[in-house]
Every structure is written in C-alpha cells, then in structure tokens.
C-alpha cells in the first residue's frame, strides 16, 4: 500500500542518504551536505514554498520522494516547458525518486506515480493535468510514466537536471478524468 505525507526536517537525513545513492545521484545531481538538503528542501517542508515534497511509503516503510507543484507557481519553468507543448491552466508537475536501491526495478515507480496522480485530482483543486518533462536518456523514468498511464505528448530540448545527460527531453501528460469534480 502506497501512502505519503509531507517531508519534514526530521526526514532530511534519510533524504540525504537517498540523494547520495548512485541511481539517484545520476539523475538528481543534488548537493548532499546537510546544509544543502536543508537549504533546498527546508522551505517546502516549512510551507514557505508552494511546492510539496512528499515522503512516500510502501506498507509503512519509506520508499521514495515525490515533488509536486503547480506550473503557475513557477513562471520560468512554465515558460521553458511552453516552448515544447501547451501548458494548460491548472497543470501540475511531479518529480520522483525511489531511494532504496533494493526497491528499484520492482515495478514500484509506476505504482507510486499512479497513486500520487490519482490523489492529485482531489488534493489540488483546479488541477487539469499532470505534465512531466523527463530526460530522454532516463529510459527507466519515462517507462515508469508510461506504465503509470501517462502518454508522451512532446519532445525537445530543456535544461537538464544533470548536464551530463544533454538537453533532449520527452514530455508526458495525463488529464483529469472526465466527470471528476474540481
């Protein structure tokens, strides 16, 4: 069973450990000192930033992290993505990782993504779609999005999270199901 809660400062040591894992560091390219983790994740944990960092659990045990945000709250990111595909009002983005290397490759990524997307419709009023850019080089990530029910709607160049991967990206989308209340 997949559950989650907002990431708190008490979770930063675990997050730091995950960010140091080679399978995460390859794509997240994040500084891993406690100062850097606190600097970069602290504002969202304290509710000072509009994005959400969600600590995801599998059967009560920490599994990974999902970052969820509205594109409207990040105009620069919205403008960059808009060069590849229309970004409707209410569009939401997610980013994700599975922290424990022993849990990678077991089909949990699509399950985690699907679960967060399903709850996004209820938890973010006015959310129209989930739109996710992913490095074209990160086959495991874009395959997880496909298995979670998202469809590729665009491809092109965006600023990469890790410069070693180049600018080529795919963009995936899933729309709010018809008939769901907003």
What does this molecule look like?
It is an enzyme of class 2 (transferase). InterPro entries: Acyl_CoA_acyltransferase, GNAT_dom. Its EC number is 2.3.1.82. Keywords: Acyltransferase, Antibiotic resistance, Transferase. This protein has 182 residues and is of the alpha+beta class. The chain has a single domain, classed as Aminopeptidase, CATH 3.40.630.30. 34% of the residues lie in helices and 29% in strands. It contains 6 helices and 7 strands; from the N terminus they run βαααββαβαβαββ. Strands 1-2-3-4-5-7-6 form a 7-stranded mixed beta sheet. The chain is globular and about 40 Å long. The two termini are 26 Å apart.
**Helix share bin:** 25-40%
Strand order of the largest sheet: 1-2-3-4-5-7-6
Rg, alpha carbons: 16 Å
Q: Helical segment tally? A: 6
Number of strands: 7
Distance between the termini: 26 Å
Q: What oligomeric state do these chains adopt? A: single chain
| CATH architecture annotation name | 3-Layer(aba) Sandwich
Mean pLDDT figure: 93
Count of individual domains: 1
- Poorly predicted runs of 5 or more residues: none
Order of helices and strands: EHHHEEHEHEHEE
CATH class: Alpha Beta
